[in-house]
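Task 17 of the worksheet. Students: predict the tertiary structure of the chain below and write it out as structure tokens. Keep your answer in the requested format; marks are given for formatting as well as content.
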Amino acid sequence: MVPGTALGVLVGDLAYTWLALRLARRTGRDDVTAMPFGIDTPTLFAMVFGVLGPVMLATRDPVLAWKVGMGATLAIGVVKVLLALAGDWARRVVPRAALLGSIAGVAILLIAFLPTLKILRDPLVGLVALGVLLLALLGGVRMPWGLPGAFAAVLAGAAIFWLRAAWGAGPGAVVAPAALGLAIPWPTLAWVEALPATLPYLSIALPFALVTIIGGIDNTESAAAAGDEYRARDMLLVEAGATVLAGLCGGVVQNTPYIGHPAYKAMGARAGYTLATGLVIGGGAAVGALSLLVAVLPEAAIAPILVFIGLEITAQAFLASPPRHGAAVALTFVPVAAAVVLIETGALLAALGQSAAALTGEGAATHQALLVLGNGFILTSVLWGWAVVTIVERQLTLTAALFAVASLATLFGVIHSPLASGALFWPWSVASPVPARLAGAYGALAGLASLAAVREAGRGRISP
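Model answer:
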């Protein structure tokens, strides 16, 4: 599973390196930065807890679970190929505040906030590394021997961690000898015989195809705002093709472009860093050396890079959008906040040996509201941000259409799914009354916006 999944990362990074070099040649610039690329973390959790784990528990057959994971990953890749063709159209239609705001929420609340918790668990390592990074990248302080700021930060944090461990003044890490052995991922049709067992799990897996396509469009817009104008269709077809290839070769997690292009650009990265990333991840997975790399670099020394990426992306969302759209950008953070609280609440409940099912009264109601708001949060953020932009611009007919789309999406669980897995469903097959209530509320908003559009059109105050 690991070499096959990493093969998608390798191929995607190589393709993104080539696209960056092509853009540099076409524009005559030497400061073009490649888009970051890797496996999609939300899909990783969905596949582990929603597909692989349940199949394993139900059948006690790890090989069947792997084959189902392959089939689900392939299905995601095929759907992404189809969705990728609409990427450029989506960039033209959806306002920048909605596209950048949705990933800014992810950036500050997932990419920056959660790593900050790791920094505070080991503040001597984490805060020193963060300080070095901010001094170099925001303060313009030159690092010794001309080291890049990010590398200097990781080096400083790792040095403190291992020197402290050597003196017995703090925790260390167990660095076991890597069990090296060549495992080259080859295409296989083993997933075909598991198709009947795969079909019930597609309702869990396929929504993540839409999520990463939306994220890829957002990231392409983010790169354009930073000065690197890529074609959305090219970026999306690469991630779709890499996902298909990973699934064919044993992988069980889809690939996606990562948030953070402007931050990598600020750190001085160009086209070569994606080449290095692909070779390290692809080669390391094939020979079993990734565990050694993970053990050597302490989390608190790496986390500041993620914090910086979160800060850069969030700042870009506000700076690159028209000032009058600031409220739209801010609103896109709210569904992401629900997802973060769900993650941390789940961890706390697990530590107490409890689950969300044990909650009662107000606690259960609050958790249900968080679940509904957090499921499908990226698409929810885009729709909410887009709707606010249309209100600001007095495009009220479009506002009504967006609320109508939100109503329809809610009925099928594309957004606001009340299921713990976040899976899609038929409107008549779910026991919870929440989807119908939310769909009705969105429908009421659509009607209200339509009435406002008619009223404003009569006054000649509506925008085209």
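Marker's comment: The chain is about 70% helix and 0% strand. The two ends are 52 Å apart (CA to CA).
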